[in-house]
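Issue 218. Parser rejects a valid record. Input:
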Amino acid sequence: MPDQSHRPNFLFVMADQLSALATSPYGNSDVLTPNLARLAERGVTFEHSYCNFPLCAPSRASMMAGQLAGHLPVNDNSEELPASVPTFVHHLRRAGYYTALSGKMHFVGPDQLHGFEDRFTTDIYPSDYMWTKTWANQGDPPRRVGLPGDREIGKTYDRQMAQMVKESGVLPWSYQLEYDEEVHFRALACIRGLACRRGERASQPWFLCVSYTHPHDPYRITREYWDRYAGVDFKMPDDPPPGYAPHPSDIWSITYHGIDRVGITREDVYKSRRGYYASTSYVDDKLGHLVNELDRLGLLDNTIVIFTSDHGDQCGEHGMWFKRIVREWSARVPLLFAGPGIAEGLRVKENVSLVDLYPTLLDLAGITIPSDLPHRLDGHSFAPFLSGQRPDHWSNEVIIENNGEGTIRTIRALVKDQYKFIYTHERSDQLYDLEKDPDEWDNVVDDPAYADVAERLRARILDGWDPVQFQADIEASQRLRSFLKEALFQGTYHPWDYQPFVDASRTWVRRSQNFQWDPYLGR
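Output the parser choked on:
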């Protein structure tokens, strides 16, 4: 293997459902995230970073493929990412990187690697069509309903999702903690193994993705983390201004999650924020442990550390929780870089999104995309920002889609400069001036003072995109996958869920190696 020691390593750390607005580098003084703060101090913080879809599987697929979810298409938590789609991990691996994943990526379909050479854990969520729901069956406004043929029919639908808000608090242990502890253990083992490599493989660059499921709901955590927030007077969501009327898409999120049916009190809001922030501190601790281990093992100086999330959580803002809405708490994600060649203590104000990571990571690794590769990227490299420069012709715009369960019409948003324009098919438009109205209470789409902005952004959001055809394609996919789900759940079930394998015959002291005092010598 040729010497590639000049190329940086990457530690890519992901949280699940972590809003940028719920972290200290983004101005939230209530939440305790000292390790994120330290990462920001020694690196670059993107102040206005967005996901491209406020839902797990579509957001992650979009990020990995460098394309908007609608172009793939992966429009809900049960739509397959085709194995033929090249991810940025394929590029890294082809260029000689060792690529590994520990944790969640929510791939749907039989390919559970998508370019990763190793995967140390299974996923936490189903990889099949189990969660497929048709818009036609959700009603208007939409509700979560179980239908014949659904494996999750029954107790899953006997309660509203919003009941979790009322149940926020202390939990001694949970399946999510069980998952993240395994993710963390496997990631640390990988880092230690990488530090101990010998021979030609010692100079091989690597990309390790460590992806946790916290602080994803439910908002419950162990006593240790809950008590860190004892007596904290959290900033609570603001009440709507007089005369405010929620948009239909807001109502869809409220009804789908059952928020209107469980009677959430102010105490429930407080406890859910406490549980969410405590779970965020849990992830922050894990980040600190990973970075400290890199430092202890002498790997930190040549490793770019990246932290982000797939989407955010409304945390009670606008009377909503969870995601499935393009408002700021749900769509804004933390995005921080630190490491060799990265400016220190820099804050970038321009709009960026997760779909930009694909070309950016390849730029940082010195990898050129083959000119004849038939894969169009929707993202753009922001690598110059990381060294304190500005990319040429930066458009300063982000497209966010929202076409999963809990919506019944296609939704597309455009964040351009200080404005956010939201198109909801067959419903009214929205326009927010985020500089003057960061909490998005004042829809100025019909304000004459914003007429030119509204017209320009509406034209931009519809350029090359047909919402009528797009909606028809989504509904056709929902019907097709519902049919396949019913068929595949009959008879013997063959899951696509990833099965991690550990070859115990090649670990520790074995006859095939006999490297008794240095078991990493042959790796």
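Fixed in the parser; the record now loads. The two ends are 13 Å apart (CA to CA).
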